[in-house]
Structures are given as C-alpha cells and as structure tokens.
C-alpha cells in the first residue's frame, strides 16, 4: 500500500534488504520469519510496544544521499511485490533520464503522493482498524469464538513468580486474558470473570499501579497497567456484571443504541463495547440519583443554570436528559433537584436574552401541565438541546383515556381497596393532635412555595420536613413521588388489574407460602384482623409473585407490604413493592437473599470504619449477621413499633438505602457502652431488643399497640426514645455516608458474597450426588467445575437454548443438581474428551446413545447427577456395571432402529407431559466372574444339569399353548449346545493352529432347578408392558400401576445407579432381550472402543470368538421358538420393525471386508500382523441333536465373520441391510448370556477392569484454550 513519503535516517536498523536497485530497496523487518537473537529481540520489542509495523516496506534512496524515503508498506510479500513490480515497470526508465539525484527524488515523491491521493480510504464505522487487529489477535491467541467480544486492552506486566512479564491485558465480556512474548518464551493467562473471588488495587514505589486478582486456585498480580484508573474501573464493572449474571444465569447483550448516542463524545479508538459499558455505568448512576425506572437510559447531559423562583436565584448545575425525563441537579450537593417527566410537559420554548444581563443567556422555558415553569439557561448548544427534547416529546405515547366501563372491568369481580388507614383509623380534623396539625400546615406551605408532585423543587428544606415525618394525609403520595413508583405506575396504566386477573386462582409454591404468612402480617392492626385487609394483601403479594417469578415471594415481603397498604391504595402498594424489590433493595428478596448478604458485609465495613471498637466486640459475639438481616429485610418494621418505623420509611424513600445503614449505626452507637460490657450474644440481643421496642413516635396518629416481649421482664421500665430524635442523630453523626459510598462497597463485596454462595451451592450439589456416582473427592470436584463452566459458556455465548420454564427454574424445592443442565452438544464435547470409551471413529454415535439413555424425562437436557453417574460407571465401575451400561446403550430408548450415524441430530423434547412407561425394564447387577476357574466351575454345573434340562423338554412342549416367555426355553436349549459349541471351536482351533486348547463352556445361570418349572406368563406380560401394549387382566401384577390408562412399572422409578448396581435375581431376569440389529451395533461399538488399544489384536480375537458363540446361541433360541405359534404381541421389545430373514441368511453377513478395515483385518482373513484368522461361516447350523452337532463348511471358522458383518452393517446408513443381507427378526439374546460369555475372555475382563483417571482429562479440557496451534517449547500457560 502506498504511503505518503516520509524521511528515514537509519534505513537498515531492524530491517533486512530483500531486493534492491539503484533507486529503491525492498526490506523485511527482522523477527518475521527469521531466527537468531536479533529476530527474537525485534519480536519482543514489537510485542511489548504493541507495534503494528508492517513487516515489509519499500524505500526510495539515491546513491549520493544518506537520506531515504518511506513510500510503501505491506503485511505480506504478495502485496509488496505488486508495488515493486509497478515501480520497475513505470518509474525505472523515467528515473534513468534525470541528470541529478535531487530531481529524481522530487519526481518520485510527487508521483507517490499522487498515488496516495487517489486511494479512497474506507473508514471503520464502529471501531478503528487498530482495535479490529487487536480483536483478531485476541481470538487467535486464546482460541476464542466470535461470540466472545473484546472490550479493551492495556499494556501491563504480569508477575510470573518473581519475574515480571511485559505484555498485554485483554478484557473481554467473559474473560480477562494476558499474553506476553519475551525472547522466544510465551506466557498466557485466561481468567473467567465468574472465577474471581477478590479484586484489590495497590500503588507503591516498588509496584506502581498493581492490581491483584484472586481466584480459588491462585492469585494473579498485574502492575504498571496503562491507564490504571480506567482499566481498574472496567475490571470492576466486568466482574460485577459477571456476578449478577452468575446469579441470574443470563448473558451479556450489547446495547447498540447507547453506543450510537455516545460515540460522538468518546475517543475514536474506543470500541463500541467500551462505549456501551461506559454508558451503562452512567445510566445506572443517573437512575439511582433521580429514582427512575430500571429501563431508563441517559441520553446526554449539559452544564446549565436553573432559575429558582422560591429564592429568586440562578443555581449552577447539570441538566440530564433521557427519553422520558428532564432532570437537574445542583453543583452543590442537595441544594436543589428537579425531576420533570416528559408526559407532564405542555410546552418547551426558547427565551430571548433579556436586558438584565447574561444570566438568562441561551435559555429554555419548560411549562408543565400543572402550570409550573422551569427556566434553564446558559446552554452551550441550546438548539441541540431543544431538538433532542422535541424529538423525545414527539415519541411520547398518547395518554390512554379509558372509559368507565374499561376501567371498571377488572373491578367488576374484584374491588380494589384504598389506603386501609382511611377505612380503619378515620379521624376528623378536630381529632388531630396539635403537632400533626402543625406538621400538615408546614407541608401545605412547602407545597405552595416549592410545588407538589413529581415536578416539585426538592431542596434541603424538603429533607428537613421528611426527617420530622410526613403527615399521614400526604404520606402515601409522597412515598410514590420520592421512590419514583409513580412513574412506573403512570407508564403501566391498568397493569395491576390485568395481572391480578391473570394470577387469580393460580396455585404455586409462592401462593402457598403467601397463604401461610397472611395472618402473621401486622396482626395487631385492625385492618389485618379483617378480610378486607387480608384480601388486599393477598392480591398484592400474589400479583408481584406472578410478575417476577425470580423473586416470587420471600418472608418479610408480607410485613413491608402490609404497612404500604395502610397508607396507599392496592395499586400504589404494588408499585411501591416493585420499586423496593427491584431498585431500592435489589436482590434482597430472591431465594438466595444475595442483596441482603452483600449489605451485611457493607454494614460490617461501615462499623469497622465508624465504630471500630464496636466492630471487634460484635464480631466476637457473632451478632453482625443476626442484627443486619432482621433489621434490613423489613426496613426495621419488624423490630420496632410500625408507627415509629414508618418515619424511617419516609427517609428511606427520600434518600435511599443509605438511611438503613445510618439508623443501624446510630442504634449501635447509642447502646455502645452497654454492648461493650456484654459477655455473651444473648445479653447483647436483649439490650438491643429492649431499646428497639421502647422507641416511640410522639407525633403518631395511630393508636400505639403494646409489644409483648418475653425478653423484657415484667415491671422493668425502659426509658423511651423518640424516633425523630434517633433519625436526626443518625443524619448528624453519619450523614456523610452517601449512596455512592454504599454502591462502591456493594461492588466490592458482591464478589465475595456471590462466590461464597457458589461454594455453598457446590457443596450441596456434591453432597446430593455422592451416592449416585463412583467418582469421589477431587475427581467429583473437578467434574462439577467443568460441568458448571460448560453450562455458563452456553449462557453467555448463547450456544444452546436453556429451559425457559421459570416456574421450575426458581422452584426452591428443586434438587441442587438440577441447577445446571447441558444439552446434547455440550454433553458430546465432554463425553468425547473424558470418556475412556470415546476412542473410535464413531464415538459420537455412542455419545448420542448415552445422552438418550440419561435423558429419562425427555427434556433434551442432562443434569449434573446424570452426567457424573455415567462418567463414574465408565471410568470407575466394575466389570458387571460397565457391561450392563454398554448393554443398555444398545437397547431402546438409547438405541433407535435405522439411526443414521452420518446424520446425527440433536435430540428434541417431546410435546407431551404424559409420563410413559420406560421401554427398558429394570436390571440387577450380574455377579462378577473374573477368572477361568469360576467359569469352569459354572460350566461343570451346566453339564450336570443337562440331563435335567433334557427331561423337561417334553414338559415344555406339552405346555406349548400356554407358554409365552422365551427366557427359560432359551436357557434349556442353550445348555444343550454350549458344550458342543466349545468342542467345535476347540477342534477348529486345533486344526488351524496345530494347538490344543482346553474346552470352555459358557456359564449359564441355571443353578436353581426350580426355575425350569416357573410359569412364563408373568415375564411375557412384562415384555408386553415394556412394548407399550396393554396386558390382559389376568397378567396384572403388583409390579405395575395404572396411570392415565397406561400400566407403568413401579421399579421404573429407580435411579440409573440402582439399575446398574441392583443384584436382585428377579430384576436380573427383567433385563430386556437384545435383537440381532442391536447385537450387531453392540459388537461394532466394541470394535470401535478397542481401536488403538495396546492389546488391540487380542481384544479383537476375543470378541470375534464370543460374537460367533452368541450368534449360535441366538440361533438355538430362534429354532426352538419357531416350533411354536408365537403371536406378534409376545415378541420382545426392539424387534418390532419388519425384519424378514431365515436362519440360512446368516452366511450373507460374512461379506468380504475392504482393504482399509478399521478392525485390524484385511480381505484375506488375516490380521494386520500377519497372523491367520479363521475364515467366515459359510453354512449355518442345520441340525441340533442331543449328543451331536454337524460341523459346517470345509475348514470353516467362525471368529472373523462377526467382525466383518459388524463393519459392513455399520458402514451402511441402514444397518440391517449391509451387503444385501437382512437381520433376523426372530433372533434374540439375553444380557446374562452376553456377560457370561464376556467373562470367559481374559483380555475383555482386563479391559473392563481398568480404572481411568478423570482429573487429568478434565484439566486438559479446561485448559484447551491455552493451547495454540503452533505452541513453542517455551510456552507457559496459566488459567
């Protein structure tokens, strides 16, 4: 790219010449593609200084001059070569004609400048090219997806041990990252904001501008941070956002409108996200300063003056403008504040300059519908302010004038109550006390002078009146104005009536808790001894629980709401409660009372600052948590007479949350002498309770109700304290505590409180799943951390859609392990990274089957308990547990017939809530047989039983019309074949290998002779039930119950771990039979699992032998059952698809394998090592006699046939139609037969006995973003 020519004195410093001619030289910067010390040095300098110097450039130089000119640059060789070729073709011939060098240089400069002038620069709309480059570098270095957005980056040093590493800190929405490259060594750090437990900042001579970031695992130190104040403020903001998201489980959404409005006032080098976050912080401060709704956003602010008619002065201050409000705050704190809703504005106009002077310069007059006028002057750009105000006024919604029929529609069935104090404590004007009369007169005078309602001038005089208490007549209205609740009610007209109708008659956990607490709410007041008050309280609490299910209902809300209902109407009380829960005391009343716990830490910090001796004493007694929660949750309403606490509510709505801390500090200061003398917590609590119960309100118009306390001995007279005096003392001693100080401390302690809650949640989750998994200790802890990280990743990268059932999400009775769930994509990622079975080419299919197996409730999500259960079995389970799990993964619902491995779709949730019977019967744990001696002993038992089995054949045939179950028949027939199969196998191996092997028999569970006489109708009924068909009345048993017309197995309710670990024989027999399609897929999975195993060939040889034997066993069972007329209703589950095949088609399954067989076999029937493997079965078993089996084929062997058929069938999208064959629909086999056969092969037993470590793959998966594509030997990574 051509650039404007610039002089270069040292042409060869840090550069290497690539090409040259008499007038030009093409250079490459050292450190780009070259080695050596110079290259490392230049690379380090560029990294530390964040140099964006392009690696290629072209200089113009003349032989007689030491001065060169920089004329072109490029990021790659192709671009610079293009410029070089243009120079040689267009300039070299012309330059040769010049007689002196100066003329040649002037010509080159003019030519290049003309080229530069013709280049049309494309400017970035939102971000500069510099930031775009940094974003690209950030994603490449840390393997971040495009969803992870970079906010800003700063130069700093990271302390690795005692050595600082100069590099760059990258701050993104969800991570803090650091990268350094010094002398060939890399250092990387990735910290999730949700992992940070503490932030600290220090500044000293040795480590200037040091930021300490602590996590549960380590502490990280960053020093010499560029723009230290800005960077630390941004770190605090991002960490605070992460803590809120951790509690609410939401993701970050960029506000495009805010960034658009503010980008004209911010640096062009600042990213749109940085502008967004700065605007969020300013809007938050704007809302808190003027008590505005939570969705109000600051549009801009401007210095100006306000004419105050009550003292005829111009007050300097700042005007703030948003889409719905014009606000003004004086430069002197609390001198005057004005809030003007745009809905109340009638006209806005310019005011011409007056002859009085410049004080009225560039003025704007705002007139409200209430005939109040506000004059703002000395704007720097009055026209722009007027334009913005006019634009917002134009966008104001038209006022909705409801007809009387519409307004009364919701009240036809429900009559909303006015302020209850007007119904139950009526007093005429002559009954008011003199103090109350004087107080009302003072407020009337104030309204006349300063205005009334939302647009009133709020001055220090207003605060003085509030401290003395608001008269009952005006209290409700002033609460609505000072809290800002009137704005929300005005913008949501009719909302309360609508939500009451929606929540009417609805039942939930919140409504049940509300009903329990209704009669505990201010029971001493007559309003709540009546159905009118109780019904109003019920409606308000239920409506808010319906509005905000995140909070629902929390104890203490009933006490606050009952007091609100005394002074305001139902609708006003609802909006006041909304303001308290969502703005004034955020997160106070959710299930985890996070806000109250944060303020408890803030209160502790304030006590340490203002009452240090008291802090040490209360910490020793352990009273801090007890007093703060009980005082703050109800805003002192539950600890002192409510007639006194309402005065504190007056100040609370006017000045915000700081009032609670001031009052609490004043109470402790008042009783400090007595508290310091206490020796135990009970004595201290008695002192505080007595003090609070004896607080009085001399100006109260409500009859005082005596509080009876068991802590106060009878006859003990306590001196009373007036609440007005207590409030004035709190403002006098602790009035310098501002809401800004409180917010800063909340930000500081939110990290600690939220992480403490997360640690407690973690302990509860691990305790709840400990009995359902074989993972223990650190491994279980690591799995939880990984599972939670994957869940949070899906939340803030929006990679999966989390459940939206809020009623279930915030259900306090919900198990702990249900808090975090993952979908199939996340489960697959973890399964492939952690499972020892995920080693083959088709591990993804196994992960899908595992997901289906775990997803019992069909919600398309897997919770933590289900995840650790299956990981524990795969990594730590016994041989029997692992084999049973593998068996289940190839039965419905885990296995789906005709599933296409190449096109696996994410499971979808069903549209019905009906609980259907499980297609899988319950199972028991098979005895673990791990050595050959046990197998031989069991084989001898089978031989001894042969005669008994043969004698019972005739009995079975006689009962043919009554028999419906297959299991016993298969066992009887199988016992006849097993000895003969082993003889054939041994003889074939002896002929092929020239060796003799001892005969082996397949152990069969027939040790109980009584089992042969069992009537088979019950097991048949079991099969029918699992198939979904309705059993006959005669076949019903106590194991089933009728639910919605469907018989459901009682044992289906058992957990997954109970299924795999159960060892009851009756359950053991209820394991579903496996058909031929499922068996083929099971064997394919085994071949896939053994791929790349160190004992691969022995494992393949073993499963080939076992597979052939099991095929023969299945054939025996099939031929036995073919003698009966078995109806479709008695066929086993899983074989209901149309599969027509005869036994003789078995030879078709032995198709020739491809040359690239993945199982270690080639087309010649030999394995990859050259050892000859037996040939395939060419003929099926034709005749089975009592003492003789006729051998099939010429020198045929059966071991490789099953492997080939597994491979061929698995390659086809229709697994039952490989190589022109069709699976046998009548063929089936039991889990007992499979497991007993598996235990005869030592390589198989050894494989399934191996214990796998979980912590190492978990850490590897967590640190995967630290692994670069081309990592150098000196890579140092930390997470």
From TrEMBL:
Residues 1135-1155 have a biased composition (Low complexity). Residues 469-656 form the Rab-GAP TBC domain. Residues 929-994 have a biased composition (Basic and acidic residues). GO terms for molecular function: calcium ion binding; GTPase activator activity. Transmembrane segments: none annotated. Residues 849-877 form the EF-hand domain. Residues 899-1013, 1131-1176, 1252-1279 are annotated as: Disordered. The keyword Calcium applies. Its main location: cytoplasm. Keywords: Calcium, Cytoplasm, GTPase activation, Repeat. It holds the Pfam family RabGAP-TBC. Residues 1166-1176 have a biased composition (Polar residues). The keyword Isomerase does not apply. GO terms for biological process: glomerular filtration. It is found in: Cytoplasm, Cytosol. One of its GO terms (cellular component) is cytosol. This is TBC1 domain family member 8B. It comes from Patella caerulea.
């Amino acid at each position: 790219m051509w650039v404007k020519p610039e002089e270069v004195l040292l042409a060869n410093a840090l550069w290497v010449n690539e090409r040259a001619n008499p007038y030009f030289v093409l250079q490459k910067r050292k450190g780009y593609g070259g080695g050596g010390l110079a290259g490392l040095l230049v690379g380090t300098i560029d990294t530390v200084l964040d140099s964006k110097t392009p690696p290629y450039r072209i200089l113009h130089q003349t032989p007689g001059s030491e001065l060169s000119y920089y004329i072109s640059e490029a990021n790659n060789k192709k671009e610079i070569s293009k410029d070089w070729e243009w120079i040689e073709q267009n300039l070299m011939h012309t330059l040769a004609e010049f007689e002196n060098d100066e003329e040649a240089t002037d010509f080159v400069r003019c030519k290049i400048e003309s080229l530069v002038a013709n280049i049309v620069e494309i400017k970035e709309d939102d971000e500069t090219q510099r930031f775009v480059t940094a974003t690209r570098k950030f994603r490449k270095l840390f393997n971040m997806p495009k969803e992870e957005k970079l906010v800003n980056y700063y130069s700093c040093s990271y302390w690795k041990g005692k050595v600082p590493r100069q590099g760059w800190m990258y701050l993104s929405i969800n991570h803090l990252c650091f990268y350094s490259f010094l002398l060939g060594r890399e250092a990387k750090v990735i910290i999730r904001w949700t992992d940070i437990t503490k932030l600290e900042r220090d500044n000293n001579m040795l480590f200037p501008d040091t930021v300490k970031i602590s996590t549960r695992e380590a502490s990280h130190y960053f020093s010499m941070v560029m723009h230290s104040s800005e960077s630390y403020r941004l770190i605090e903001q991002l960490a605070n956002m992460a803590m809120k998201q951790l509690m609410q489980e939401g993701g970050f959404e960029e506000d495009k409108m805010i960034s658009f409005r503010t980008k004209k006032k911010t640096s062009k080098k600042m990213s749109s996200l940085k502008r967004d976050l700065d605007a969020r912080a300013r809007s938050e401060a704007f809302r808190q300063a003027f008590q505005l709704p939570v969705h109000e956003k600051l549009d801009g602010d401007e210095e100006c003056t306000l004419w105050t008619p009550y003292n005829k002065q111009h007050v300097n201050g700042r005007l703030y403008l948003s889409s719905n409000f014009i606000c003004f705050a004086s430069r002197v704190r609390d001198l005057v504040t004005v809030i003007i809703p745009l809905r109340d504005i009638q006209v806005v106009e310019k005011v011409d300059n007056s002859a009085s002077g410049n004080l009225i310069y560039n003025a704007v007059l705002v007139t409200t519908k209430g005939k109040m006028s506000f004059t703002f002057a000395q704007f720097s750009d009055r026209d722009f302010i007027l334009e913005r105000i006019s634009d917002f006024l134009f966008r104001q919604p038209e006022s909705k004038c409801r007809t009387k029929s519409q307004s009364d529609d919701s009240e036809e069935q429900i009559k909303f109550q006015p302020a209850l104090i007007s119904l139950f404590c009526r007093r005429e004007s002559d009954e008011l006390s003199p103090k109350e009369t004087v107080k009302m007169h003072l407020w009337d005078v104030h309204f006349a002078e300063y205005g009334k309602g939302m647009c009133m001038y709020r001055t220090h005089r207003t605060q003085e009146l509030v401290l003395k208490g608001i008269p009952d007549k005006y209290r409700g209205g002033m609460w609505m104005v000072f809290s800002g609740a009137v704005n929300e009610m005005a913008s949501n007209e009719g909302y309360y009536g609508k939500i009451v109708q929606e929540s009417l008659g609805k039942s939930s956990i919140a409504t049940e808790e509300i009903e329990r607490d209704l009669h505990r709410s201010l029971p001493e007041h007559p309003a709540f001894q009546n159905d009118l008050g109780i019904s109003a309280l019920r409606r308000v609490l239920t409506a808010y629980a319906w509005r905000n299910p995140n909070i629902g209902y929390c104890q203490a809300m009933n006490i606050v709401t009952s007091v609100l209902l005394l002074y305001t109407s139902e609708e006003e009380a609802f909006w006041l409660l909304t303001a308290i829960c969502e703005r004034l005391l955020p997160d106070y009343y959710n299930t985890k009372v996070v806000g109250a716990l944060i303020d408890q830490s803030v209160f502790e910090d304030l006590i340490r600052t203002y009452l240090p001796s008291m802090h040490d004493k209360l910490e020793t007694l352990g009273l801090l948590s007890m007093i703060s929660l009980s005082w703050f949750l109800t805003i002192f309403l539950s600890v002192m007479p409510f007639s006194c606490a309402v005065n504190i509510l007056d100040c609370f709505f006017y000045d915000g949350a700081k009032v609670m801390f001031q009052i609490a500090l004043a109470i402790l200061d008042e009783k400090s002498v007595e508290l310091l003398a206490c020796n135990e917590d009970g004595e201290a609590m008695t002192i505080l309770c007595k003090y609070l119960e004896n607080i009085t309100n001399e100006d109260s118009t409500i009859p005082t109700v005596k509080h009876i306390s068991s802590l106060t001995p009878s006859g003990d007279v306590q001196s009373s304290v007036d609440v007005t005096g207590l409030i004035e003392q709190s403002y006098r001693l602790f009035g310098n505590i501002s809401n800004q100080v409180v917010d800063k401390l909340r930000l500081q302690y939110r990290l600690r409180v939220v992480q403490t809650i997360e640690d407690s949640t973690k302990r509860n989750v691990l305790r709840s799943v400990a009995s359902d998994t074989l993972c223990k200790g650190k491994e279980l802890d690591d799995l939880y951390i990984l599972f939670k990280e994957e869940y949070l990743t899906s939340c803030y990268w929006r990679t999966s859609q989390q459940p939206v059932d809020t009623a279930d999400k915030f259900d306090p009775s919900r198990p702990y392990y249900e808090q975090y769930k993952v979908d199939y994509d996340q489960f697959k990622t973890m399964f492939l990274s952690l499972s020892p079975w995920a080693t083959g080419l088709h591990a993804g299919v196994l992960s899908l089957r595992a997901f289906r197996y775990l997803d019992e409730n069909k919600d398309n999500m897997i919770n933590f308990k289900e995840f650790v259960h299956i990981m524990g079995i795969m990594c730590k389970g016994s041989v029997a547990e692992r084999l049973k799990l593998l068996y289940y993964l190839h039965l419905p619902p885990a296995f789906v017939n005709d599933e296409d491995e190449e096109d696996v779709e994410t499971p979808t949730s069903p549209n019905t809530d009906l609980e259907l019977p499980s297609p899988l019967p319950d199972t028991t744990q098979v005895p673990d047989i791990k050595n050959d001696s046990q197998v031989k002993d069991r084989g001898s038992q089978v031989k001894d039983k042969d005669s008994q089995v043969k004698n019972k054949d005739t009995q079975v045939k006689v009962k043919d019309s009554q028999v419906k179950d297959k299991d016993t028949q298969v066992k009887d027939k199988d016992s006849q074949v097993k000895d003969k199969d082993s003889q054939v196998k041994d003889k074939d191996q002896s002929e092929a290998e020239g060796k003799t092997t001892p005969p082996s028999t397949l152990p069969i569970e027939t040790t109980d002779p009584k089992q042969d006489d069992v009537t088979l109708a019950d097991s048949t009924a079991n099969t029918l039930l699992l198939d979904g068909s309705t059993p006959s009345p005669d076949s019903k048993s106590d194991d089933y119950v009728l639910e919605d017309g469907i018989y459901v197995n009682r044992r289906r309710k058992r957990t997954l771990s109970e299924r795999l670990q159960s060892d009851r024989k009756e359950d053991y027999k209820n394991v579903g039979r496996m058909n031929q399609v499922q068996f083929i897929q099971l064997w394919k999975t085994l071949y896939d699992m053994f791929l790349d195993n160190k004992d691969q060939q022995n494992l393949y040889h073993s499963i080939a032998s076992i597979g052939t034997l099991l095929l023969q066993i299945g054939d025996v069972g099939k031929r036995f059952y073919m003698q009966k007329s078995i109806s479709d209703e008695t066929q086993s589950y899983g074989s209901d698809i149309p599969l027509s095949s005869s036994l003789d088609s078995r030879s078709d399954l032995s198709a020739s394998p491809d040359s690239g067989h993945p199982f270690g076999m080639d087309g010649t029937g030999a394995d990859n090592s050259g050892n000859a493997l037996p040939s395939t079965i060419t003929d099926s078993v034709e005749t089975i006699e009592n003492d003789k089996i006729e051998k099939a084929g010429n020198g045929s062997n059966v071991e490789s046939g099953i492997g080939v058929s597994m491979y061929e069938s698995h390659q086809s999208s229709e697994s039952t139609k490989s190589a022109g064959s069709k699976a046998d629909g009548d063929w089936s086999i039991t889990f007992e037969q499979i497991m007993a056969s598996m235990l005869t092969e030592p390589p198989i037993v050894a494989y399934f006995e191996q214990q796998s470590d979980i912590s190492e793959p978990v850490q590897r998966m967590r640190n995967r973003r630290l692994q670069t594509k081309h990592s150098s030997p000196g890579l140092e990574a930390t997470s």
